[in-house]
Design a protein that fits this description.
Radius of gyration: 50 Å
Structural class: mainly alpha
Oligomer: single chain
Shape: elongated
Number of helices: 9
Strand content: under 5%
Order of helices and strands: HHHHHHHHH
Length: about 200
């Protein structure tokens, strides 16, 4: 009679069979990995290279602004439009002052007094494309007599007799009369004196 193998020997044989099976499946998978078409591998390699180039490019861009000086800054469209307008206005004013230096000098000397007398014209001058020309036209639109009146009006009237600035407020209060505390006769006399004037 044949003896059956002992249980320990059976367990060793089963584990040995499992190892052989695992080794075969690993070698099969290894062979499967080696069996991938070359074109697929080339495509994957090319994709990885492109991605690496992109990463390098972005890293260079991120380090560039810190290395550059701050000469260039972001400008909105509104700011760009304003700077264009201001640049053009400066050029026009420069050209106008170069062509008409006497007018530019006149505006420079008289503008402050003119705007003091007519502050409502300040926004018109400020928003015009050529401030010197606009100010000159507005200032010369008045006749010489009107300009003299404007200059005189801009000066304070402290020297004028009986002007409100020369009379103190307390003096006006001294002349106040309490009508409610007068008797009837006093009131009639006061009223008659006011009617006679």
């Amino acid at each position: 009679m044949e003896e059956s193998p002992e249980p320990q020997e059976q367990a060793e044989q089963v584990t040995h069979d499992e190892q052989l099976h695992e080794d075969q499946s690993a070698s099969n998978s290894h062979q499967d990995e080696q069996m991938v078409p070359l074109s697929v591998v080339k495509k994957e390699r090319k994709k990885r290279q492109q991605l690496q180039e992109r990463i390098d490019h972005y890293e260079k861009q991120n380090t560039k602004p810190s290395q550059e000086d701050d000469r260039y800054e972001v400008v909105t469209r509104e700011e760009l439009g304003k700077t264009k307008f201001e640049t053009l206005r400066d050029m026009r004013e420069y050209d106008y002052a170069d062509k008409f230096p006497d007018r530019a000098k006149f505006v420079e000397q008289e503008l402050e007094d003119f705007l003091h007398a007519r502050p409502n014209l300040a926004p018109a001058i400020q928003n015009s494309p050529n401030r010197i020309q606009e100010a000159y036209e507005l200032m010369t639109a008045l006749s010489p007599k009107q300009r003299e009146r404007e200059k005189a009006a801009s000066k304070p009237n402290d020297q004028v007799p009986r002007s409100p600035t020369s009379i103190p407020k307390a003096a006006a209060l001294n002349e106040a009369i309490d009508v409610m505390n007068m008797s009837d006769n006093e009131f009639r006399q006061w009223r008659d004196s006011k009617r006679r004037r």
